[in-house]
Amino acid sequence: MYVCLVALGALGVLAAGPFAGIDPATLLLLAVLFVVAESISTMVDNGGDGGRAGISPSSSASLAAVVLVGPVGAAVVGLCSVLVVFRRQNLVKRVFNGAQFALAGYAAGHAFLLFGGEMGVPDRGAFPWIVLPYVGAILVHNAVNGALIVGLMRALGVLDLQRPKRVRWRPMATLELSSLGYGMLGLLIAAIWGLVGPFAVLLVLLPLFIARWAFDQYMAEQRAHDATLATLAQAVETKDYYTRGHCMRVSKASAMIAQELGLNAERVHTIRYAGMLHDVGKLGVPTKVLQKSGRLTEEEFAAIQLHPMRGYEIVREIGFLDEALAGIMHHHERMDGRGYPMGLAGDEIPEFARIISVADAFDCMTSTRSYRKARSIEEAVAELRRCAGPQFDPRMVDALISAVDRDGWQAPDAVEPPDDDVAEVAKQDHDDPSVPLRVAGEAER
Q1: 280, 314 in Cβ contact below 8 A?
Q2: Between the CA of residue 321 and those of 222, 237, 317, 340, what are the distances in Å?
Q3: Average pLDDT, the chain
Q4: Angle at 169 between CA 168 and CA 172, to 5 degrees
Q5: How sure is the predictor about 58, in pLDDT bands with cuts at 50, 70 and 90?
Q6: What is the C-alpha separation between 353 and 363, in angstroms, rounded?
Q7: 67, 113 in Cβ contact below 8 A?
Q8: C-alpha 19: how far from its chain's center?
Q9: pLDDT in tens, 67-126
Q10: What's the CA gap between 304 and 375, in Å, rounded?
Q11: Cβ neighbours of 316 (radius 10 Å)
Q12: Interior CA angle at 102 toward 20 and 197, to 5°?
C-alpha cells in the first residue's frame, strides 16, 4: 500500500505538468545519463553490520535536471529508475525507486525555483548566486529521499521510530557533506551544458566513473582482507571448541566501543581486525592445553600467557593491520600493571588493547563455558564496573555499557564439544599469586 501511494504521488505530479519549456533532447539525454549512472552503483558494506548501501553518480544527473529542465523534467528523469539495467530488482522495488526519485526531483526542482533559481542553462551572470538555490535544492532532494525510505522501512516493520539515547552527529554530518559535494556535480554539468552541449556529461562524469571503478577495486581488496582474517580466526576456534564465534563477537564489541568513543571510520575498521585476531596466537598453543579438562599447571598456563606475543609474531608482516598489532600484543595487560606479557600500566597500554580487553572479558562472561553457564548481560556489566580501574580502563567500560544499552547484545548459544565427554574445566583460584587476576577469577583458555 505504501509503495502504491508513493507511485500514485509520482504519477500525479507528472500528470499535473506542465511540460512547457522543456527541451525533449536535453530531457532524453539526462534520462539516459541517469539510468546509466544508477545501473552501475557500487554496493558497499554498512560499517560491517551486515547492511549494504549503493553509491552511484545518479544524484548528479537528477540535480542537473532540476536546473536544466525544471521540476517536472527532473521528475521524469527520476522515474526512469524503473529502467535500470545490470541490477537485479523485482518490479515492486523498481516502482518504488522510480517514484521515490521522481518525487525527490520534483520537490528539489520547486525548491530551486522558490529560492530564486531559474530553469534552463545558467549563464555567467547567474554565478555565484545560483549556488544558494541549488544548495537548497540538494537539501530538499536528500530530505525527500530520506523521508520516503524511512517511511518504507517503517511500513515494513524493520524500523522502530524512537528517540535515540545519543545522536551520532559526526557520521550524519559526514554523510550530508559528502552528499552535498556529490550533488554539486549536477550544477557543474548544467553550467557547461551551454558551451559543449551533451558532451558536458562525459566531461564531468567520466572521471567520476573512473574513480568509481577504482573504489570498486578497493572494496574488493577490503573484502579479500576480511575473508583472509576471518579464516585465521576460524582456524583458532577449531582448536578451542568452547569459544566458537568468540573472535567475531570480540571484533563486534570492540567496534561498538570505538564508535562510542568517536574514533574515525578507518580506526573503527582497524579495531575490527584487531578484535578478530586478538587470539590468533593460540595457534601456537598446544591443543591439549587449550582443551585440557581441569586445572592447568604453571607451565601450561605460561604457554597460554605467551599467546599475545605469538599472535603478534604471526601477523606482524600483514601491513594493513597497522595499529591493530598493538591491540593483539597487549590485550591482556591491566591498568594496575599486573597483566601480561609486558606488565604495562595505565596509559602505557595502547588504546586498542584497552578496548579489546573490555570486549574480550564481556564476551567471555556472557558465553557459556564448560565449567559454568553464561552470565546475564546485567551480571557481566556489574563485573566490568567492579573491575574498572585496577583491570580495565573505565572509559572503555562506560563506552561498552552505553553501546550495549543502546544497540543491545546477542549472547551466543552454548557450544557442545565434539565428543560425548564434556570437559569440566576448573576455575583458576582468584587468590593464586602465580596466576594474574582475571575477571571473576576465570582463566581464559
Answers
A1: yes
A2: 12, 20, 9, 21
A3: 80
A4: 95
A5: confident
A6: 15
A7: no
A8: 42
A9: 999 999 999 998 988 887 656 677 888 889 899 999 999 999 999 999 999 998 888 888
A10: 24
A11: 12
A12: 55
Contact 86, 115 (CB under 8 A): no
Q: How far apart are CA 325 and CA 308, in angstroms?
A: 10
3-state secondary structure 154-176: HHHCCCCCCCCCCCCHHHHHHHH
Using the 8-state DSSP alphabet, how is residue 293 labeled?
S
Q: One-letter amino acid identity for 151? A: G
Do 192 and 67 meet the contact criterion of CB atoms below 8 Å apart?
A: no
Cα-Cα-Cα-Cα torsion 253, 255, 260, 262, nearest 10 degrees, comes to: 160
pTM beyond 0.85: the answer is no
**How big is the chain by its Cα radius of gyration, in Å?**
28
Closest listed residue to residue 6, CA positions, set 147, 166, 172: 147
CA atoms of 11 and 106, how far apart (whole Å): 11
Please choose, from the candidates 42, 56, 22, 54, the residue with its C-alpha nearest in 3D space to the C-alpha of residue 205.
56
Which residue type is seen at 298?
A: E
Give the integer Cα–Cα distance in Å for 333 and 340.
5
Contact 25, 149 (CB under 8 A): no
For residue 341, the 8-state DSSP code is: S
Secondary structure class of 55 (helix, strand, coil): strand
Report the amino acid identity of residue 99: A
Q: What's the grid cell of residue 176? A: 550530508
Residue 52 phi, psi dihedral angles, 5° rounding: -135, 150
Cα–Cα distance measured from residue 101 to residue 80, given in angstroms and rounded to the nearest whole number: 9
How crowded is the C-beta side of 283, counted as CA atoms within 13 Å? 16
pLDDT digits (tens, 9 = 90+) for 381-397: 999 999 999 999 999 99
Name the 3-class secondary structure at 44. Answer: strand
C-alpha angle 42/45/50, rounded to 5°?
Answer: 140
More confident residue, 430 or 148: 148
- The dihedral sign for the CA sequence 271, 273, 274, 279: positive
359 exposure class (CB count in 10 Å sphere: 0-12, 13-18, 19+): buried
Cis, peptide link before residue 18, omega less than 30° from 0: yes
**Per residue in 217-231, pLDDT tens?**
877 888 888 888 888
Amino acid at 9: G
CA quadruple 175, 176, 178, 180: dihedral, nearest 10: 160
